[in-house]
Amino acid sequence: MKSEAASEDSPAQARVVVVDDHTTFAELLAQALNRETDLVHVGNAGSAGAAIELCREARPDVVVMDYHLPDGNGLDAAGAILQDAPQTRIIVLTGNPTPEILGRAAGSGICGFLPKDGSLRTLLDAVRFARPGSMVVHPSLLAAQQGAPPVPQPGNGVLTARERQVLALMAAGHDVRANARLLGISENTCRGYVKAILGKLGAHTQLEAVAIARTRRLLPEQPDA
Asked: PTM 4-aspartylphosphate: at which residues (predicted)?
């Protein structure tokens, strides 16, 4: 079904479809999306087939999709959606994927692979910052198993002590303003450190930088917020 919010969106808002056969989860996520000024929920689907049809009709910018669906899986559905609209950003939610599933996800064209029981803040950040051609895998999904394929690490730069401080604060969920205040530096200076961190780690977003840092053991292990 389509959300009433679909008629109220604006060009500045990212249009989001939710695909999950658990109605309560889908409705709660839709409500959370519509509380954000830069996001708008444009429809729910409860199966892979319904998701493909809805995406053809609604043309969302982002799809948040459960891996386990009644008539297939999220990666198969993602492939069909991306064949129709290659620039669609797709985030797949799962529990404890096998190495084979992670390996397939890496070549599927999706932008994110996140735990379904993870934090709402992490999911909303992924919806905002996911970009085609770059896949973020949440570190908890890699840590849950042996032999999982590593996240690509294109950046080879060594982080300075200050950059590591900023990275640790990023991982704790603080924004640039809070990080600048905690470190006693200006916001512009803090943004410069963030830009340097992204470049050295080969990341496109702060969320991706934190995920890469976790897999490269640049940060102490922490439970998911």
From this structure: 66
pLDDT at residue 131, as a whole number:
83
CA distance to 12, 63, 153, 194, 207, per residue, from 162 (Å): 34, 36, 21, 10, 19
Give the integer Cα–Cα distance in Å for 9 and 18. Answer: 16
Res 95: pLDDT: 80
Q: What is the pLDDT at residue 157?
A: 54
Residue 222 covered by a domain? no
Q: How far apart are CA 19 and CA 10, in angstroms?
A: 22
| Residue 124 shares a structural domain with residue 80 | yes
Query: Which residues make Cβ contacts (< 8 Å) with residue 32, sequence separation at least 6?
Result: 120, 124
Residue 204 lies in domain? 161-215
> Does the pLDDT of residue 207 top 60, yes or no?
yes
Q: List the CATH number of the domain containing 91.
A: 3.40.50.2300
Q: Is residue 198 part of a domain?
A: yes
Residue 153: name the closest of 79, 218, 223, 104 by CA: 218
What gap in Å lies between CA 15 and CA 58, rounded to an integer? Answer: 9
- Quick count: other Cβ atoms within 10 Å of Cβ 221? 8
* Any domain includes 28: yes
Examine the domain organization and report whether 167 and 77 are in the same domain: no
- State yes or no: pLDDT of 99 exceeds 90: no
